[in-house]
Amino acid sequence: MTPAVRVHCRSDHRTGRIITAVITAGVDTAAGFVAAHPPIARTFTRLGGRLNAADNARRAMAARLRFPDLPVERIDDPQV
User: Mean pLDDT for the chain?
Assistant: First the structure.
């Protein structure tokens, strides 16, 4: 079992200016990912026009979402 943080990101479908990041901490097991808490959603305005939603989330939440010994996986997921 390995602790991990997953951040699923998407941009709105109309303009692409609003990014939604859904953050879940948990454990990666052989059976799959097991969440430790209900997902936390954060919405913000796109920072860079050429960056995808996951890269925008990384830049916007860099100061708040920093874990030195824990992998943070950012996924550009339009289905979130």
Answer: 81
